[in-house]
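User: Let's play a game. I give you a shape written as tokens, and you guess the letters that built it. Ready? Here's round one.
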């Protein structure tokens, strides 16, 4: 199946789910989810796999065990690609009633990865490389996000170079588009591919300087 765009019916499905996040709505409209959300996303990922690698498509069900919000279903469908052996630096894509979102970088880092990230940021060679890349992405309408401290990280001075980057415990760049006509066309594939290519340098920096955790992976 080739990718021909995300049908408007998929966005309408999520508008309905936002209004009625219930098992009744889900079961009544599950075929719309499968046909107009999941199938097009799988087709998109299939066409991108040769360049970026295989993707993990997230389950549509929320983990409500430790959440005050007990609504059972996610109001978006996302997928992530993390190249095997690199450990850090991933590509993400998401479709929802709000439109299309792409992102790249790191969302959750274990303590050993955070320590390596900060050593690299403080490094006189690797630190400026990340600083320059983050600045370039910000100029290109990417939003620079991620969990970060409000204080100075332990072991670093208040006047340390690249202090704002040092405060990060994770870092990713995100770009979103509101629903437009091209979202329903093959052009959406080109937009995702172009955006992900723009994140190559950021992801390579993360892979080279942060890498995989040596800690036992937490269950989420």
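Assistant: Ready! My guess for every position:
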């Amino acid at each position: 199946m080739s990718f021909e765009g995300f049908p408007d019916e998929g966005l309408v499905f999520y508008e309905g789910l936002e209004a009625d996040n219930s098992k009744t709505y889900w079961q009544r409209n599950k075929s719309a989810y499968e046909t107009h959300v999941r199938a097009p996303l799988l087709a998109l990922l299939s066409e991108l796999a040769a360049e970026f690698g295989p993707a993990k498509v997230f389950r549509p069900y929320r983990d409500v065990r430790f959440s005050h919000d007990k609504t059972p279903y996610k109001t978006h469908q996302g997928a992530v690609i993390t190249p095997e052996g690199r450990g850090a630096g991933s590509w993400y894509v998401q479709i929802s009633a709000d439109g299309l979102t792409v992102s790249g970088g790191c969302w959750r880092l274990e303590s050993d990865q955070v320590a390596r990230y900060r050593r690299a940021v403080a490094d006189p060679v690797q630190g400026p490389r990340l600083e320059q890349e983050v600045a370039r992405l910000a100029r290109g309408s990417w939003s620079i996000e991620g969990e970060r401290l409000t204080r100075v990280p332990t072991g670093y001075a208040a006047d340390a170079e690249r202090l704002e980057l040092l405060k990060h415990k994770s870092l990713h760049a995100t770009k979103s588009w509101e629903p437009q006509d091209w979202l329903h066309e093959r052009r959406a594939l080109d937009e995702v591919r172009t955006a992900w290519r723009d994140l190559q340098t950021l992801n390579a920096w993360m892979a080279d300087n942060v890498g995989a955790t040596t800690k036992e992976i937490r269950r989420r």
